[in-house]
Amino acid sequence: MALQRIDKILSSQNIASRSEIKAMVKAGRICADGSTVKRPEEKYDPETTLLTLDGQELRFRKYLYIMMNKPQGVLSASNDKYAKTVIDLLPEELYRRDLFPAGRLDKDTEGFLLITNDGELAHKMLSPKSHVYKLYEATTDRTLHEEDVAAFRAGIRCGDQTFLPADMKIIAPNKALVEICEGKFHQVKKMFSAVGAEVTALKRLRIGGVSLDEHLPPGACRELKDQEIIDILSHYHGL
Known about the structure:
Elements: E1 4-5, H1 6-12, H2 18-26, E2 30-32, E3 35-36, E4 43-44, E5 51-53, E6 56-58, E7 65-70, E8 100-101, E9 110-116, H3 119-126, E10 134-140, H4 146-154, E11 156-158, E12 161-163, E13 167-172, E14 175-180, H5 187-194, E15 199-207, E16 210-211, E17 221-223, H6 226-231
Helix pairs in contact: 1-2
């Protein structure tokens, strides 16, 4: 990895602001490989240099991968002047300025949202070519029938949009599991609308091979485990 200024390295990890880090350096509180850092513009490789603050090791993480159980009423955005976003819900220890939601869930949709600063992984996860399936639980305003299941499997056309075939499993008279790999704008809602049903509640339960942690209440989040980071790009699907 390219060498970076020590103040940039530490601020990227949310250790402190650039001005605060400058003061820490001046006070001799930061060391690199056992030697006291003299100037905030000194450069190091953050992946190979042992950095310490007041003798405590600082672990550098280039990328973060966060599973959030997105609640209703919150925007899937990095920032917004008028409404609360998913980034606003992050605890201080997980916040980074470069984090963003990988894909969007509508404001009234809840469930599994991946928040990361890894643009390459996000692109792969969202691209239909990657065949990363997303599983949703949809509640509708009418009773669902096997004819609806067949329509989803055949592929849905809504207005001038065509959606690829999708699996659906009815789990209650007006509730179904739906699995898609496209992720077009309002896709699940539009697919149900095409068969004459309105979605009254929608929750994402799984991305790839990773399911929403059932211990996460709405608005809570946690980092993905190493295996989950791999599994989120898997081709796993099944209702």
